[in-house]
User: What shape does this take?
Amino acid sequence: MITLPLHPDFIPFNRPYLVGPELDYIQQAVVAGKLSGNGEFTRRCQHFFEQHYGIHKALLTNSGTDALEMAALLLDIQPGDEIIIPSYTFTSTANAFVLRGARIVFVDSHPDHPNLDFAQLEPLITPRTRAIVPVYYGGQPPAELPRLLALAERYNLWVVEDAAQAIEARYEGRPLGTFGHLAAFSFHETKNLSAGEGGLLAINDPRLAARAEIIWEKGTNRAAFARGELTPD
Ligand SMILES: Cc1ncc(COP(=O)(O)O)c(C=O)c1O
Assistant: This one.
């Protein structure tokens, strides 16, 4: 077990959650000489998320921010597209889409809690709206999540769950991060599961899986090649 030194006068905002074999796993990766992504530990981790949470395809990223930025690329967000996000969230929720030239439309908090006020959502939808991004601050989904999903379906909008803080959180028993077409998780040191810095893009819509993998591999089909799926012409 790893014990982290703490200053006696210091009240920590968080303590990284460590379970024991971390240093052993790092040593295994170092000894194997495979320190970049998409090695054995990436494969095992992604497989765990797919099996344990029922995610169609899980891709580890360098951060939750990266996962959100990948989502914006994957949905081909263009300048002038509108993305609806809660006004109470972390900067990355908006920045990921702003980087693609999108216009952010904020939906205000519910009067009684900081989550988005579902009653204000529908009037914000315009012909330029492309996606709604529910955020699960502190692992809390909006109570009206099924109605939000139905609304998105009615207007043919993508749903990207910002599940950065929602690992192991559920809505009526079903894991958050499995409701939207896409979902972003964070494994930042402050999160319940931590990789120091890290994240995961959950691709729940199978139509997006192949392109997601190409974006993940920086515009190449390296993952398919590594699986032996490519044959020479
Ligand atoms: C709601 C929300 N979205 C996105 C992020 C970004 O995650 P990361 O720090 O892994 O980039 C965070 C991080 O705190 C967050 O709280």
In short: The first strand starts at residue 57 and ends at 61. The chain has a mean pLDDT of 94.
